[in-house]
């Protein structure tokens, strides 16, 4: 499969790119608003991978081109760019493209981070509202610490939580996520259940803030 | 210490009572609106404990009496009874009594459970708002499956998350929680961070609903 990381030069985009390229045989496409920036990121990622003896297929494109070529499109952009980004690529999506959203709306103050969803109830549901009706949307990878992903020396031992209304699309993303070593995907039902999934992101950041011995906090369910 | 479980005949009250009585040397007081019901529960709990060779001190009282005698008062009542229950016992609380709240507001539909906090932002903050100003409030034990607690054969291996504005009270509850075998208490900062903590409860119930191999789902952070 071809996996496009839209905004793949950012921190979560980097982490997911490296893990997909390192652990799977899928083709990884890095998207950026500036294709030059995407190609620079690809160079860095390939260097990192080749140091570990992995010759992976990673290519850089403008976001639209990356989306056009991909089977799975991951919106690895900040929450306030999600709506614009969907608008900019929607002509390149169709019923055969799975749109994956890991973004979470948060607001910080001196106490910590607080879950701050848009009016749709969650960023995941905002993506579903804005994407063309025929495009299946899957919420995934919300609660993964970017630093933990990006450092390939890290054993993950993490769960990621999936929400989607389209069961086939969810199954595809579930298999993809499970191909990343140390990552386990759990089903949390339809998109309507995404707010509680997204809330885990500010929570794990707060846990890292208040517990000295915990950094890049991940979560497992059992 | 004396720990009162207000509403201690309910499922989370039963679970916490058994664990405190089994794993610690503290005195456990079961509170109920009906003292007779509290004493019946005590009989059941003592039987369960004595089968395991534990002669614990568990006593049953009306809620007000239990609160009056306790150092730590756990409001193990459903979320819609929290405000009334605080009102009914507030004359028995003072600055030396720590009020602990594990309740979470949720609403269910065919998709699953959804986090549904009161206007204060969380049930934990509702308790703090309704309790007398001098009484320290700690949010704790929100995300523990009652069935997992109540079955003493279960090894817990669980984290519980603490929020409080009073650091001494939080430390006391942290130590108490850590005395339960297999339970680890993590600090999540002040009461303002409680909504994300409470959101974990509907999330773990949804995870149990959609993943056949997971029941009484617990969570660990690392």
UniProtKB/TrEMBL annotation, chains A, B:
It comes from the Archaea. Residues 2-104 form the Pyrroline-5-carboxylate reductase catalytic N-terminal domain. Signal peptide: none annotated. One of its GO terms (biological process) is copper ion import. Gene3D superfamilies: NAD(P)-binding Rossmann-like Domain (3.40.50.720). GO terms for molecular function: coenzyme F420 binding; cupric reductase (NADH) activity; ferric-chelate reductase (NADPH) activity; NADP binding; oxidoreductase activity, acting on NAD(P)H. Keywords: Oxidoreductase. One of its GO terms (cellular component) is plasma membrane. InterPro entries: NAD(P)-bd_dom_sf, NpdG, P5C_Rdtase_cat_N, STEAP_metalloreductase. This is NADPH-dependent F420 reductase. It comes from Natronolimnohabitans innermongolicus JCM 12255.
């Amino acid at each position: 499969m071809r996996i496009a990381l839209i905004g793949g030069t950012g921190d979560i985009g980097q982490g997911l790119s490296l893990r997909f390229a390192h652990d799977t045989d899928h083709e990884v496409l890095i998207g950026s608003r500036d294709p030059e920036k995407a190609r620079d990121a690809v160079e860095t990622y390939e260097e990192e991978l080749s140091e570990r003896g992995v010759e992976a297929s990673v290519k850089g494109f403008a976001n639209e081109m990356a989306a056009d070529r991909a089977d799975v499109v991951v919106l690895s952009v900040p929450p306030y760019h999600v709506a614009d980004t969907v608008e900019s690529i929607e002509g390149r999506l169709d019923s055969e493209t799975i749109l994956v959203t890991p973004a979470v709306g948060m607001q910080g103050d001196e106490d910590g981070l607080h879950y701050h969803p848009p009016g749709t109830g969650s960023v995941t549901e905002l993506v579903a509202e804005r994407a063309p009706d025929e495009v299946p949307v899957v919420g995934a990878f919300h609660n993964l610490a970017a630093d933990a992903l990006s450092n390939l020396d890290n054993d993950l031992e993490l769960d990621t939580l999936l929400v989607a209304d389209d069961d086939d699309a969810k199954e595809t993303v579930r298999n993809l996520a499970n191909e990343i070593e140390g990552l386990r995907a759990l089903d949390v039902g339809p998109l309507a259940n995404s707010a509680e999934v997204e809330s885990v992101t500010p929570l794990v950041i707060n846990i890292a803030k208040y517990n000295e011995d915990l950094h890049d906090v991940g979560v497992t369910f059992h």
